[in-house]
Design brief:
Number of strands: 27
Shape: globular
Strand order of the largest sheet: 2-1-11-10-12-13-14-15-16
CATH architecture of the largest domain: 3-Layer(aba) Sandwich
CATH topology of the largest domain: Rossmann fold
CATH class of the largest domain: Alpha Beta
């Protein structure tokens, strides 16, 4: 399996009648997806798509997304999954940037699509996704069919996908990934998670996001099953589905687990079929790790680290290492080499802080239409991740924060993550983000933005300040606590620290 199309074809040949997707009570077998995607690929190849043209996919998780995604790959195109919860201006910017030949969307997005394509001067052919299948703009049904013959399928170094980063600050970047990149990472994840055809993952993460994309690809590779969450707003109803459908796996970002623990009865359920949990997209607080392990001692917990630029995954702390290496992101997964380097490109000594640098077949080709941005992170030594970390004597890595998140307080450089870990030890805290705000004496001072737990006794600002004073050196103690109903996040659950700063400064100024 050297390409994603070969990966799907092999599983279809072995498990054609088996269910790939469960969505709102209906199943999609592998063989049916093969023909749905094959019909779309033939339609694209009939003069609508040249090799390596882009197909923008503005769809939620579901049958239509999988049809458009794999159909694009079978036609040797480049799939560009986009967030359906977007604005006219954001969509127009992406359309200008990647210039798709085809755009697939639902009719509920008709007004958004027409306004954005007009604003972007985008002439993409529009395809509408309906309950009955894909329709061309003239309402011509795109029928299921066998895919184009294998000689027209992609080769390993073809671009398979552009994934736009969530853009916590500034414009998102189009991470350009080849079939070789994605297959390498997929194989590695299947290996260390021990995925097989009996695995069913409960999916709350969007497929347009690199983490969600990896769930899709790894379960297709393993011949497994995707159980789509009906709605993750009503948490206990979603957990009912997860339990009833016999999920063996669940994957989420730290905020997903924080919500489940503080706003649902997640920890009081048994989930008899559940085999593993994974967390990526940021560090999971040790207090939450402890509570999850106490509630589910029979379940393996994988704490993972990665970047979109790495096709998703770079490292994992394995379940049997959680007690021995608390707080670590582990070591590189199979096929990935990780080093922590100083500014001169030399490996740091244990305990010293440097930047994580990665090498492997999973590392991106580059940023779409951004040679300067590509050159800044793809260096001779590998992918410069922008994440600061230490390493211990055994080679285990401990992330301390992003370069861009450092708080410069007096003569010190403070990493917010260490303070956040301490605050999350308090039962009354559901989520927290620490940022540096202007201070006349220090330049910047740490301020904690806290979301209270709905299932614990209320916590006060004084409680938090006293706890930090007892657990942290003086220069790392927070100067103020701001209680908020929720933390601003990207569509993929990452906290938007810069927006927190901007909002607080605007409030102070007014």
């Amino acid at each position: 399996m050297k390409t994603l199309t070969e990966l799907l074809a092999n599983t279809v040949q072995a498990r054609s009648e088996h269910e790939l997707l469960w969505e709102r009570g209906a199943g999609l077998p592998y063989g049916e997806l093969w023909h749905r995607a094959g019909g779309f690929a033939r339609w694209l190849r009939a003069g609508r798509l040249q090799e390596q043209d882009r197909v923008a996919i503005l769809l939620p998780n579901g049958r239509a997304y999988l049809t458009a995604y794999f159909g694009t790959l079978l036609a040797r195109g480049i799939a560009v999954g986009l967030n359906p919860d977007t604005t006219v201006e954001e969509l127009a910017w992406v359309l200008r940037h990647c210039t798709p030949a085809v755009l697939v969307a639902t009719r509920t997005h008709r007004a958004l699509v027409h306004r954005a394509t007009a604003l972007a001067d985008c002439s993409a052919t529009i395809v509408w996704a309906t309950d009955k299948g894909l329709l061309a703009a003239d309402s011509e049904p795109i029928e299921s069919d066998e895919p184009p013959s294998a000689e027209h399928w992609p080769v390993p170094d073809d671009i398979a996908q552009i994934i736009y980063t969530s853009g916590t600050s500034g414009r998102p970047k189009g991470v350009t990934l080849s079939h070789r990149n994605l297959v390498a990472n997929t194989r590695s994840i299947v290996q260390y998670l021990k995925l097989g055809p009996t695995d069913s993952v409960f999916v709350i993460l969007p497929f347009f996001y690199s983490y969600g994309n990896s769930l899709l690809l790894t379960h297709v590779a393993a011949g497994g099953r995707l159980i789509l969450a009906p709605d993750f707003v009503f948490l206990n109803r979603a957990l009912d589905v997860m339990e009833q459908q016999g999920a063996t796996g669940f994957s989420g970002v730290p905020s997903s687990y924080a919500m489940l623990i503080h706003r649902s009865d997640f920890l009081n359920r048994s989930f008899p079929t559940l085999r593993y949990l994974t967390c990526a997209g940021g560090g999971l607080a040790r207090s939450l790790v402890r509570r999850i392990r106490e509630a589910f001692p029979h379940v393996e917990l994988y704490l993972m680290y990665g970047q979109t630029e790495a096709s998703a995954r770079l490292s994992s702390l394995m379940p049997d290492e959680l007690d021995r290496k608390p707080g670590s992101i582990g070591r590189g997964i199979p096929g990935v080499t990780l080093r922590v380097l100083d500014d001169g490109g030399r490996p740091v000594a244990p305990g010293q802080v440097g930047e994580i640098v990665a090498r492997g077949e999973n590392i991106m080709v580059g940023y779409w239409n951004d040679p300067e941005g590509t050159a800044a992170v793809l260096r001779p030594e590998g992918l410069r991740t922008g994440d600061l970390a230490t390493v211990d004597e055994d080679g285990y890595i401990y992330v301390v924060g992003r370069k861009s998140d450092l708080i410069k307080s007096g003569a010190y450089r403070i990493h917010p993550r260490e303070i956040e870990e301490v605050i999350l030890e308090l039962d009354g805290v559901a989520e927290v983000a620490v940022v540096g705000l202007p201070d006349e004496m220090l330049g910047e001072a740490p301020v904690a933005f806290v979301v209270r737990s709905e299932r614990s006794a209320a916590v006060s600002a004084d409680d938090i300040i006293r706890h930090c004073a007892a657990r942290l050196p003086r220069y790392k103690r927070i100067h103020r606590v701001v209680f908020v109903d929720e933390l601003p996040k990207t569509s993929t659950g990452k906290v938007r620290r810069q927006l927190l700063r901007e909002r607080e400064l605007a409030g102070t100024a007014s």
